Structure formats: C-alpha cells, structure tokens
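Hi everyone,

Forwarding the result from last night's run.
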Amino acid sequence: MIYDSRIRDQILRAMGGIPLATALALSACQVGGVVDEETGETDTDTDTDSDADTDADADTDSDADTDSDADTDSDADTDADADTDADADTDPGCVQGTAPILDSAYYQNNPTLFGRFVICEPDANPRHCPDSTDVSPNELIADVVGFGDTGWMWWDAQMVCGPVTDITTDCCYLIDSTEFAIGRPYMVEGTAQVAVPDRRTGWSAPLTLERSVDAASAKQLGEAWAEIGSYEHASVASFARFVQDLMQLGAPADLVMDATRAMADEIQHARLCFGVAASFLGHEVGAGALDCADPHRSQSVEDLVLAAVREGCIGETIAAIQASEARDLTTDDAIRAALSTIAEDESRHAALAWRFVRWALQQHPELAPAIEREFASVIAEPLEETDPMAEVLHQAGLLTKADKAAVARRAFESVVRPCAQALLGARSPMASA
C-alpha cells in the first residue's frame, strides 16, 4: 500500500508536479467512491470494510464467509459442497457465471481489459465442440477480435475450462488473462514476443538462495522465474524500439536518454531473474534469439502514443506494483533484493512513459480523447480462486493469479486512475472501470 502511494507521487512529479490532492479529488469525482488520502485507494461499495464487495467480511467475494472463493462454505475450493476436493458430485461444471462474452462488439468498447471472459469459437458445430485441451485461447482471441492494437498485449490468455455448459448455441470457453509482464513487452501484431529460455551461459547473475524446496517444486519455480526473465530480456528490444519512436517524434533529449538507460536496467533485470531460475534449476539459464521482425507496425503518432499508454502507463505501472508485492511476500533475502531492484527500476520506467505521454499530449492535444478512451477501457475483475502452492510461490517471490488480479485492480484504482485524471484534467470524465 505504501509503495502504491510512492509510485503515484513519483509519476505525478514526473508529469510536472501536479498536486496529489487534485489528482485524488478528480479520481474520486469520476469513480464515485471514497479515496483514502494515505493510500489513494477507492472503495465504491456500501459496506464498512475496505474491500470491493458489499458484504462485511474481509475478502473480495460477495459471500458471507472469509475465504476467497465464491461459495458460502469455509473450504478452499470453488464448488458448493462442503468438502475440499474438486470432484463432480455437486459442482456445476464449466459455466459462464458473471463472465462477459468477449466478441468483436464487446472488444470495441473494452480493448484493454483483463480478467475472466467467455469467448465462443466462430463457425463451430455446437453439437461437437472441441475439448478445452484442444483449443488455444490466444488463437481463439485472434479469430474473434483479430490482432493489432489489442488489449491482450502484455499478458497471456489461459484456458480455464470448456465448453461452457450453460451456452448451448455455440462452442464457448471460459478464459482468463491476468498476466502482466514485468518489464515493457515487445509486441508484434498483438502478441508479446519472447525468446525461449534454455540452458545458456552469460545471462544468469550469480545468486545463492537461502531456502531449499523439493525437486518438483524447484523445477516449477525455476521455470516460472525463467519465463519472467524472458520477458525482461524482450524488454531490452522494446525499449530500443521506444528510443527509435522518440527520435522519430522529435522528443526531448531527457526522454531519449532515460529510455536508453532503461535498456541497461532491463538487461540487469533479465540477469537477476535468470539467476534466480538457475538457483532453482541447478544450471545456468538464458534467452536465445528474439524474433524482432515487425514489418506491419503502425508508425502514426496516435498509435505510438497509445502503445505507450497501454504498455507503459498502465502495464509497467501495474507490473512495478506487482513486483513490490512479490518482494514483500518472499522470505528469501536474495530474491527480495532482486525484486527490490526490479520494482524500483520499473517504477522509473513507468514514470518515463507518463512523461512521454504528457509531452506528446502537449504537442498533439487532439490525441486527448483517444488517450482518455485507452485509460477508460481497462477493466480489472478479481479472481476468486485458491492456489494450493500459494505459500511456496510467495516464499519464492512469485504471485498467484488471484494475487496478480487483486494487485492489478488496486494499482489501477490507487495509481493509474488518479494519474490519468491528472494527465487529462477535468475536461471530460474518464469512464470508471
């Protein structure tokens, strides 16, 4: 919570010292809730606790117990029976629930959203729907909404289940997408490009971890850290491209200089992440060749600025706060030090994105409505699920999917929204997410 206010203040200072009280007042006015002056968080419900539901317990679901699932029993699963297994005795199966249906019309109004969604396969025979294991959620999204400047850029959609049983007219699947990449993603036609991590020398920083885990857990944790390292590795290319964008737009020297420095930061982040991975896996880890080809990328001023809004102002801001959350949860000093470096650097990178967008808006005030729509289109829905490995993940400096969704929602309300309001001013309301 304290880190949220720190990064918010850092962004406001970077944009020219806009008073915090002004930003928070604007945000509270548009959201219609109560803003905590210390943390900047907004609580829009009518109960007396600080979570986002309308019951009086301390979790974020709408039932009356204190666990994080959506039923009214006290076990840790998400079915409605009183046991803790995942069998099908009283489970409802794969159902839509409150998840919206993602189609082209919905996407037009919500191009940068994340959470849980139902998406239906075009032209499929509802009598013979493929099993969820045979369906790629990312390819399905591409078929339904197409590539380009999509909001699925800096995270990866995951299949939850399917086909959805309460929709019988189409072959529909429940997916979620809450994975913000730590770092600035290298996007090509709506997909984050990464190099496959593998046994490779020269990329792993020498780290010694304090806590030992069993072999199976060590492999899983090592692979998770290697994946994070691959996104940090790709961030080097992303900032190199950002430097070119800045030069093309005639940006001031300080923006170009800080973007160039960010490339070196991302190299160090990748080495730290691969170093943690190597400690878990027992061998050095690194990234191979990264496919940087992007022949169809738009070079219009509007597209370049909106990419900075999505990838930097929103994506990097939230990712920096997620990194700080993971840092506070880990029990390992080496991992905590690595995450502390990453969180602090990423907050500067996020502030750089906000500075650039503010400069671009001064040069091109006609972009204000498009920028406003980009911020307003973000929807953050909490996930109500329990990860049996949560404790192990936390100790290793990793967040569960539910953690990431909760932190993203909080970060958007306490940091991104008030900073966006400060950037855009009070000319026109930013729609609440």
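The first strand starts at residue 34 and ends at 35.

Cheers,
N.
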